[in-house]
Structures
1.
Amino acid sequence: MRVAQVHYHLRQGGVTSVILNQAAALTEAGAEVLIIAGVTPQGDLGYPFALVPALAYGSPEGGHNNTGELAKANALAAALLRAMEEHWGAVADVVHVHNPLIQKNSSLIPALRILAEKGIRLLLQNHDLAEDFRPDVYVNSGEYPENCHYAVINRRDYAHLLRAGLKPEGLHFIPNEVRCLKAVPGLKRTRYLYPVRAIRRKNIGEALLLSLFIPKGRTIAFTLPPTNTNDVSYQHWIALAKELKLPMEWGLGLEHSLPELYGTSLCVISTSIKEGFGFSFLEPWTAGRGLMGRRIDYVCRDFEEEGLRFDSLYSSIDIPLVYISMGRLKEEMEQAMIRVYRAFGRELPPHIIKMMSEDLFSHDTLDFGRLSEEAQAAIIRTLASNRGACRDIIAHNFFLGFLEEGNLGGTENNDLIDSNGKTVRHAYGRERVSEILLDAYRQVMEHQVTQKISKPMLLDLYLDPLRFSLVGLGDDGAAPLNN
């Protein structure tokens, strides 16, 4: 079996790790792998590589129907075919394209349409979907490629794509392989480790809020900064933590190895409000560490179906409305939703505003994770200067009181850690994921499908006002942050 793995780049990150893990699994299974990307990778990949510069990130401007765009698409399609033919003397049995529906190169989707029309067997795997409140990378013009196979990494996306028009025989659920981590033994354990790149959807402000409730001598530690270290939001949180003398640490992964950082951790935390797969919910158990923090239902349900237990996660941090400027928040959320819809090429329906308003004002509290960075920062300032307000917040969120007392909510339960670790290694290990991947490839090779995604339906499914969060928006939906 010849498999071409295709992506815009191979920079360090989640999708690149997935590609390399899949390449390793395929090679072990006897398949021939060619990795194709738009930028030359740093160092030796360990697998055959072909450079197609036209795959690299490019301007998303312009439609696909004009002569110039069509010429670029034809050139990219031809370059992909040429890369495979130069390597094998033939086209791959399966061309596996990663994240093609995220608009980073305006030529890719029309090029894939051209390949599909030529009978090339395509598997389009989506690690993220722009419809999930990411209008900055949405493909406004043209349809998604038709009559080819698709894949996703969580069951929520699987269900949504089925409802949007795909068929079970043409849609594949392919979970990611999870690496097993180690913690250096014998180190002093004082950190609540947040092993992620500190981008907006990781809900950085909530980590600062949690830091107000941890015992003295302990810290909350991020491992990596955003790719753009001058990111306004990131610098804002660093400055606030410094101003309020909060026990936060930043960018520790730039100077220390992950095994070292796990060795100094009490447990791992996650405050993220949105994930594609959710490595942070799985990896800690393999390193002998528990997990506490914010539950993401559609992610955790997938893992619970495999037998994992998450005893130390909360669904929300409920903030009494007295601490929130509700008029201002309502205006912020409505304006953000208007920007989101317009960025998707739509006008916001009145019933969406009504649903959102009723949701905001139907309770005595509001989840901290739905607020803007500005509103989150204001609450953190209040709590940092007013222990009475902290007691009030604890009354609505009992787990914060346990955290304050040094009780990690069961994250030191060795039986649970061992059990979850075994489950992760079995359900998301190389052997199991390789079987799923190879089965998907066989179906792609053996079954031609006739199917099409309804883009309007997909948008309707994802743009749920009841799960709308201001820190979970793509760039086009985000309002400027006032320091």
2.
Amino acid sequence: MIFMYDTAWWISAATALAAASIPAFLKPLKALYLLLALALWSAAVIRIALMQGALAALAGGGVSLLWGLLLMLFSLLFSGVRQMANRRYN
């Protein structure tokens, strides 16, 4: 896993991670913003694949997708808890 020593891989992986995190921070999930985040994530993963290979792209893309899914899950969970508390005390 020599690609982990490459600074360009880390920058591209951080870009993919940030792009995968965008939907979790959007209050109204609009299709345009989701498509832009998907385009940015795809561009970062494709750049990783072209520069370092398929294994590096799987590592960067997989970690960023897992992070994005976890953030989305926590965002939905906390917004549901907040709405439940608002309904109970209003």
3.
Amino acid sequence: MNSPKDILDHMGTGLLTVNPEGKIAFANVCASRLLGWKTNELVGKPLSVVVKDQFFDAANPFRREDLLFFRKNNESFPVECIHAGGGVITFQDISERKRVEDQKDEFISNLSHELRSPLTIIKGAIWNLKDGIMGKLTEKQAKLVETTSRHIDKLSRLVEEVLEISRLQSGKVQITRRRVNIAHVIEATIGDYHMAAKEKYIGLKADVAPELPPVYADSDMVEQVLHNLLNNALRFAKSSIVITARPADNGFVRIGVVDDGLGVAKEDQPRLFSKFEQLQRPQGVPGYKGTGLGLAISKEIVSHHQGNIWVESDLGKGAAFYFTLPEYDPAADFRFMLHGAMKEADRRRVPLALAVLSIDNLRSAKGNGVLHKIGEALKEKMLRKKDMLFRYTLKDFALILPDTPLDGANIISGRVEQFIRAGLQESPQSGKEPVIRSGIVLYPNDATSAERLIEIAFERTNGKIQNFGGR
């Protein structure tokens, strides 16, 4: 009779078990082969030898679609986690699948690029005909030109959507995530669709929770998701569409586009967000046939924001499309900007400095918003345009100083410290003499990861890292 170990070793997928300390307690034969380690070499090593410095939640790895594992020789390969929980991770190498998918996506992208130029020329020619530049058209000719123009526009939209989803999936789209007031984005989007909804006698309104927290997102991309969902809702709604926004669990905000249309059958819902899916809609929506890419693009955008998108619907009872976005996190914003500054420093081969200034004796000054005013004044009067200042916590400032060696960073940090001290002393509520401790690190001299740079900078202030959200 085969032992449990024999059974696990004969699995066709890699299996690792991880103890509470984050170290590998067991690896089957397949895992050892895929990772290039002998089994006894893997056991006892931290999971970080496999995942390196990637964020990896062993309890929920399925949120990542770009996860890499690393072999003993430091070569990486894409993986799919089949199961994870209770300290057990099973995975498989999907390198070949990714290669085929990449070839397919590259072909579609290249084809779309090649179609762009002739489509632009054809559209120009059609417009010349419509404007009468080539002479006045007969009634039949005008109808033919109008029909051709309509189909050219549809083909152009398809090409643009194919290129858009190709860019999103390849990671070539520049996503600029900052603090976003989602209520303002919803209000602006509703304004764009006010006339279209009115023409169809459809009520369109927002239902946003009061004091909704800001989200950490690219506002243009969020608008694109709302546009895609609203376009769908306008095609199928009977009399009303409502855009909702509510706080969700685990630091997310949930946005919804809810219509009172004919709904989506349960069996069709799993395919809704796949590329080129055009579901058989119930009778009552004649003549519409979309590209099948709007929802797929929305899914890619939401995924890039670490959110989820889904539909809740019963046939004949309308449809509610929901997606989640993370609440704004000052530390996440700071790390994002630091990552970007590090890449730019690598590209230009110039130094990059990070300075942290931690301030004590702020109980009274903090309550009066003195540090906020000081931060705004610093940006306006003291710092260079390329410098980036963040209120990292309630009592800590962090400075990203591009193209700055150690001597320059010490000078800038010293001036900022004097400015903060003077501002606090001017405040009648500042209380005791402020104590300001500073720490400076250089990239790549002191560390090569953003997280480690931040950690060292705080260590050099002789302080501990505070709650990242500053709450």
4.
Amino acid sequence: MTQNELAMTLARILLLKEGGGKLESFESLLCLRSYFSELTLDELHGIAIEYGIET
């Protein structure tokens, strides 16, 4: 999985998880993805592990 794919996956999963099972807005997804895309791959993996998301 590339860094961008992982960033998008994390953004989608966390929005669904924290948003009660529904994706609230496309803007929120893009904002979160933008934030995650600035992180390193190691940092993204750390976030995934912290939230129990398999990568």
